[in-house]
Amino acid sequence: MKIAVASDHAGYKLKEEIKRHLAEKNYDVLDFGSASAELKVDYPDWGFKAAGAVASHKAERGILVCGTGIGMSIVANKVRGIRAALCHDHFTAVMSRRHNDANVLVLGARVLGADVARDMVDVWLDEPFEGGRHSFRLDKISAYEEENCKKLEASSGGGRTVVIDHPLVRHKLGLLRNKETSSKDFRDLVQEVAGLMVYEVTRHLPLEETEIETPIEKTRVFTLSGKKLAVVPVLRAGLGMVEGILKLVPNAKVGHIGLYRDPKTLKPVDYYCKLPCDISEREIFVVDPMLATGGSAVAAVGHIIERGGKKISLVSLIAAPEGIATFHEAHPDVDIFVAAVDSHLNEHCYIVPGLGDAGDRLFGTK
């Protein structure tokens, strides 16, 4: 049987003890982190990974550990198909299997001793599900979960619109809006805001553990697990965001898409497209400071999809509701990340209050 395990820093020592115990009993253990009791981490980052492995049948069962067990139990039960039980003793571990068919056991390292935890793990893994009336009750839970997942999917309208409103982002965005800001300062601020947005845009990137040696001793650390990234600016204004992103993800490849808005029709006109040859294998961030009508962004993402791009996100500084609606209608599975959603478009299709023409302000052409 494969067992997925995970913990935060508070549960690390107990997780390691449980791993040793499971190995002695010849279970196949999949450890999803964390890797240290000293490095403070966020329990959702590790709990979701292990619970996801159980939900996707990469593991038959899961065991999660944090300080009290409460946080990890909340995390695991957010994952579709997971029945996580926070247990405190032999009896609750038995009953979580017998009556609830729990597929994830959650333990509190600051609540339990190692001997009690080992005993709970043993009985939890050995105890069968009784079925009968309990199956009928679990069927009700599954039916509710299935129905509400469908409702959420139907109401979500596809891709998300994520507003990154960190205080630093909001402060720098205020400076960007000021018409007195010089072109040099405007360029610097666009790079800075784009760099700050990268933290949220890349939050989902997977990590893997590797062993290194510090000046003191060997330890295990986390690195990005071979993720291929591409940044694709929409020319010309999108160029202003690229350097801020590359400072944090310097190994990303850069493509370019050239579009301009016809002043009469207000429709995007194509004039250039050059993408990395392995674009189909990369996670792609299309960058353009302004999402106004949505026409250019829709066209840019369309070009990438035609050339094999699959995992795409749009990153803009400011968006208008009209542009967001148009973009999601055309590309319902693509996420939008913005620093602000403004009021509306004016009669010239400029974002209000906006910050003017980002390209002109970046390059001093007006």
Automatic annotation (TrEMBL):
Record: residues binding 5-phospho-alpha-D-ribose 1-diphosphate: R236, R261, D288, P289, M290, L291, A292, T293, G294, G295, S296, D357
Activity modulation comment: Allosterically activated by GTP.
Recorded GO MF terms: GTP binding; intramolecular oxidoreductase activity, interconverting aldoses and ketoses; magnesium ion binding; uracil phosphoribosyltransferase activity
EC number of the protein: 2.4.2.9
Cofactor: Mg(2+)
Reactions accelerated catalytically: UMP + diphosphate = 5-phospho-alpha-D-ribose 1-diphosphate + uracil
Stretches assigned to the Phosphoribosyltransferase domain: 163-365
GO cellular component entries: cytoplasm
InterPro entries to which the protein is assigned, alphabetical: PRTase-like (IPR029057), PRTase_dom (IPR000836), RpiB (IPR004785), RpiB_LacA_LacB (IPR003500), RpiB_LacA_LacB_sf (IPR036569), SPI_LacAB/RpiB (IPR051812), Upp_B (IPR034332), UPRT (IPR005765)
Pfam family, one: UPRTase
Gene3D superfamilies xrefs: 3.40.50.2020, Sugar-phosphate isomerase, RpiB/LacA/LacB (3.40.1400.10)
Protein's UniProt keywords contain 4Fe-4S: no
Similarity field: Belongs to the UPRTase family. Belongs to the LacAB/RpiB family.
NCBIfam families per record: PRK00129.1, PRK05571.1, rpiB, rpiB_lacA_lacB, upp
Protein's name according to its UniProt entry: Uracil phosphoribosyltransferase
Origin species: Synergistes jonesii
Name of the encoding gene: upp
